[in-house]
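Entry for the shared binder. Reason: the reviewer on the internal report wants the predicted structure included alongside the sequence.
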Amino acid sequence: MRAEADGPGKPSGKAAGKADGKPSGKTDGKDADKAAGKATRRPPQVTRDTARPEGGGRAAPGRAPAPARQWPLLAVLGATGLGLLIVAFDAFRVGALIIGLALIGGAVLRWTLPSVGMLAVRSRFTDLFLYGGLGLAIVLLALMAQPHAWLKIPFLEDVLHFTVQ
């Protein structure tokens, strides 16, 4: 009765030749290693799932609505969108500062919160390095943008004059 429930040609548990817990006579190398309890170093033929990045769980309880569960990502995207909107209204420096600060804020959220939802893309170190580094670079470039730079670094001005001449 059980063999019929599995479908034609698909023997069930005891009918498969493993009634006593030993493998059947027909095995290839991989099956023999598995049956003997040996671990193989070969990757699986088919990938069934991917590992979630550390800290990639929900940022709010599962019963909360979807936007609330992803609030860290939405906060960073919202601030970045606001910065882009300000840039579109011809306030380049202020908009770029907001974008850079949004990325630095994403790095701070990734560092301080144990679970940040989809803001976690890679390992914690990689996310911190990329969010913080790109945010810092954008902030510095916004402060040094010409004309009337808010931040003047003489070393970089010398490099600029050397490369332009």
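Summary line for the report: The CA atoms of residues 75 and 102 lie 8 Å apart.
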